[in-house]
């Protein structure tokens, strides 16, 4: 996880815990969901790159 994304997720979690109004919680949860989706997207990209490097290093090839 990139540091800015990690910090954003961490801060949003604390904001959600500290929120006292339902509308604030809903807004924060929506932002948290976006941050988590961003993290997942970056993780998928990084894993794909690592898998490609592994295949290159081992000579393994997969059509999937």
H and E order: HH
Average pLDDT figure: 90
- Principal-axes geometry comes out as rod-shaped
Query: Unreliable segments (pLDDT under 50, ≥5 consecutive)?
Result: none
Integer count of domains: 1
The percentage helix is over 70%
> Which structural class is indicated by helix and strand composition?
mainly alpha
**Percent strand:** under 5%
What's the N-to-C terminus distance? 25 Å
- How many strands, which pairing sense, and closed or not: the largest β-sheet? none
Please provide the count of β strands: 0
- Separate helix tally: 2
Gyration radius, in Å = 17 Å
Account of the protein in words:
The protein is mainly α and 64 residues long. It has one domain (3-56). 83% of the residues lie in helices and 0% in strands. It has helices at 3-18, 22-58. The longest helix is centred in the middle third of the chain and has 37 residues, at 22-58. 2% of the residues are buried.
Characteristic terms for this protein:
single chain, mainly alpha
Please sum up the structure shown.
By secondary structure, the protein is an all-alpha fold. Helices cover 83% and strands 0% of the residues. It contains two helices and no strands.
List the helices and strands and how they pair.
Layout: H1 3-18, H2 22-58
């Amino acid at each position: 996880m990139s540091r800015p994304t990690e910090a954003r997720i961490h801060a949003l979690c604390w904001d959600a815990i500290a929120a006292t109004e339902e509308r604030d919680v809903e807004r924060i949860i929506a932002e948290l969901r976006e941050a988590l989706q961003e993290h997942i997207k970056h993780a998928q990209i990084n894993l794909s790159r690592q898998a490609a490097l592994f295949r290159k290093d081992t000579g393994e090839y997969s059509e999937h």
